[in-house]
Amino acid sequence: MSNSDPKARPKPGPWPPAPESSAMPPSSWAKRTGFRPKFSGETNASDSGQMPLPPRARETDNQPDLEAGRVRPQPQPPPAVANGQVQSNKPAAALPTPPAAADKEKDQSVKKRRESIGGAPKNSSPGTNLRAAPSSNEQPPPPRRPSRNGEVVDVLPQPTVDEDGFMGRPSHMKYELRDSPGLVPIWFFGFQHYLSMLGSLVLIPLVIVPAMGGRHEDVAAVVSTALFISGVTTLLHTSFGSRLPLIQGPSFVYLAPVLAIINSPEFQGLKGNNFKHIMREIQGAVIIASAFQTLIGYSGLMAILVRLINPVVVAPTIAAVGLSFYNYGFPLVGNCLEIGMVQILLVIIFSLYLRKISVFGHRVFLIYAVPLGLAISWTAAFLLTEAGVYNHKGCDINIPPSNAVSEHCRKHMTRVKYCRVDTSQALKASPWFRFPYPLQWGTPVFHWKMAIVMCVVSLIASVDSVGSYHASSLLVASRPPTPGVLSRGIGLEGLSSVLAGLWGTGTGSSTLTENVHTIAVSKMGSRRAIEVGACILILLSLVGKVGGFIASIPQVMVAALLCFMWAMLTALGLSNLRYSEAGSSRNIIIVGLSLFFSLSVPAYFQQYGISPNSNMPVPRYFEPYIVAFHGPFRTSNHGFNYVMNTLLSLHMVIAFLVAVILDNTVPGSKQERGVYVWSDREGVRREPAVAKDYELPLRVGKFFVWVKWVGL
């Protein structure tokens, strides 16, 4: 008989009601088997036999705990009760395990688990947080509806689980952090990684050197120097930095401030070789900013600042970097639409429509979308040039269109200049062998106003690297790095930028944002393969003809590739929102305000004081970077005017300021904000597998044990 007392009646279950499940086991069965109840009311059921419906299991129970490095333990399904007897969930052929044998098996599993982590005391009893891995003869749990976080499977796939229940190598990754592909494949995978990121490595010199007034051979020399520094700094970073397989190189974060320095008022009236003079100014600013970034990293200050940097801050900041160059992209492509549009369409077709086509197990179209599109469009432009499509008699491409005497030449000169592939003499002028050396452009020149601008930009580059460290570690490593490893990586990036400033690459060195996409697509996260690829890059940089060949890429094709690269950079920045509650109204408003003001505020500064018919000393696509001429700050201190007008005209600076202030002042839970969770220093030391991922090689770490904020 059921109890008629209303107070004794069970409370209604959750809504919507969970599907019917078998009755819960009696208390005696729970005591014999060691079953620990997970639901309230299981062991204190009323005498009437009524049992409240258990709440639904959380959808994320079967998801791996990426921060803890292991799979969350699953509650065993309770046995069904039929006619007063317990029915086992195991197959009929399996014999029931005696209680003594079950306890012995559990003790052995607990002991094995402790030995693997190396941190549990020997004389402690089996804890409630250690559970043996499910045996192979148990039926798998029924499939559940994938959670909202399951939408990022392509970027953050499910890892495999070993027999002890720990998270192993992600099932989609071919090679993890400490894996070696083998003597022959390692050369292929290393070169493949760099080839897939060709655009990020070489396109920046093709933009800034012509803007400085450099010649074709100057472009080739800067390209070779950038390749050399990229290889050297990548080796340093994988050995003494964060130790993650991340390529270092000229970052797009530095491109906008460099263009602002190039178009400064004091450089407009220079005569002679403007390139070397402006390059020395940029070198001085980069060296001071790099020293500032090194101080932030190795002093441990980055471990404190990282508390303010979360996905809601990283996403709009990096997205603003890509969106800020819309003035440069398609306006240059329009100078030769038949070549530029073919380039863009080819890259889109390869990276989207043909992305799932595999050749010998490799998604060649997705991995090599940029070099394949460049090769095909360059070949088409060469055939059109040789066929005489762009020939115009009596017109010299070396004469500016405004100085041409013939009306016919003035009309077609722009088309001839941008569509022909034989206008550059970089390949012929480049030597076969050239060794980049420091101070090759002369002694750097230091000005405090340009150095302050670069210091702020180096902080933005550090924010970009924080997002790359976290995302790449979840793909290739057992756990995210500790705050000390994070600081160590930022400090080494500062030293790498010092090398870039001394050698004269035109920008600072930083972790390229495209690393995360390349690792996820190529399924290759081997640190050793990246190091081999860096060695190949250093060897190629010594061949002067390689730099000359890259420098001879037509400007229209460069602009077309940059359209795709900047769009990818914007998307990769916004993809950081997957670690937060992207549907939260709080995050939506913060990201929306950050992106809008990052476009609107710089537009105010860039257009302030410009009359519609005014003649600017630079091309129209460089007009946003001459704000120091006419910005709203017009005090008696010209240096202060330059710093404020330049910084507030940079899209990424405005996005970072708005996002970091709002995200750290507007209330929100850690889950809603998606706060980055970094590994604990003591916890990593107890797990040898995780320690090997990040510890310094050759016993170097033992000399820095006392520096707790830059290591394990």
TrEMBL record:
Q: Does Transmembrane appear among the keywords?
A: yes
Instruction: Classify the main location.
Output: membrane
Compositional bias of type Polar residues: which residue ranges? Answer: 122-138
In terms of superkingdom, the source organism counts as Eukaryota
Example GO molecular function term? transmembrane transporter activity
TM regions (residue ranges): 194-213, 219-237, 244-262, 282-301, 332-353, 365-384, 445-463, 529-550, 556-575, 587-605, 642-662
The record's Gene Ontology cellular component field reads: membrane
* Topology within the bilayer: Multi-pass membrane protein
Q: Where is the composition biased (Low complexity)?
A: 20-30
Record Pfam families: Xan_ur_permease
Q: Which family does it belong to?
A: Belongs to the nucleobase:cation symporter-2 (NCS2) (TC 2.A.40) family.
**Protein's name according to its UniProt entry:** Nucleobase-ascorbate transporter 12
The source organism is Trapa natans (Water chestnut)
